[in-house]
Amino acid sequence: EKGGQWQFAIVLLKSIRKLNLAPSVVSMNAAISACERSGQWQCALALFDSMPLYGLSPTVVTCSAAMRACEKGSQWLHGALVFRSMRLMRLSHDDYSCNAAIGVCEKGGQWERALGLFASMAQMHIRPNEISCNAAMSACGKGAEWRRSSALLDSMPGLQLLPDEISWTAAACACEHLGMWRHALAVLPSEHQTHLLSDGGVPANRGTSFNAAVGACASGRQWQRAIALLCGLPRLQFTPDGVSFNAAISACARAQR
């Protein structure tokens, strides 16, 4: 299951049946997780739906694994149905299942549903974590809701959560698509904002959030800032990749430089 060997897991499950032994919840969970890790969402859902036939009741772990499989397959509607079925089965939601549901909506481009799920966590007395926030921010970014994405980033300290590279990238990408370069730079760690906005240097953060910031500068035709970011990346122990260079080249091309 850990290695995602879904076919082997299914063979073992069939062997249990041939021996006239009933599969357990644990074995079904392992098989569903193996399917999830291998991107076999149809197989994962088939196993999930077959559990009542063996007199087995899905657990929160089962539902979460099934939803993650739907997330990887971009099957947000199926994932939403699994999440809804938990209430019918009288299963209590936790941060694990909520994160899986938000992730499903994010992959399916359903930012309103993702944001609604995130907001409902407080009503269910479930404390959001970094994964919750990052998935909700990414969903808002895909929906061109950069203000909502930035607001979620700003709310993390109040939730006693520490933004990470994924957080900054999600917020920066939301701004990148709309050419909101100032906002893309502003969502980087606060101690580095002044240098970027005043042409005074490059922040000491590194990773994919930089690529998003370079892309935002390109969309906003800020070629000088894009080049400054690109040139400063090696000093930050981050090797520019194809995305970095393409974004910087695009910035120069748009400015006819």
TrEMBL record:
The keyword Repeat applies. The keyword Repeat applies. Pfam families: PPR_2, PPR_3. It comes from the Eukaryota. Signal peptide: none annotated. Keywords: Repeat. Gene3D superfamilies: Tetratricopeptide repeat domain (1.25.40.10). PPR repeats lie at residues 24-58, 94-128. PANTHER family: OS03G0856100 PROTEIN, OS12G0638900 PROTEIN. NCBIfam families: PPR. This is Pentacotripeptide-repeat region of PRORP domain-containing protein. It comes from Alexandrium monilatum.
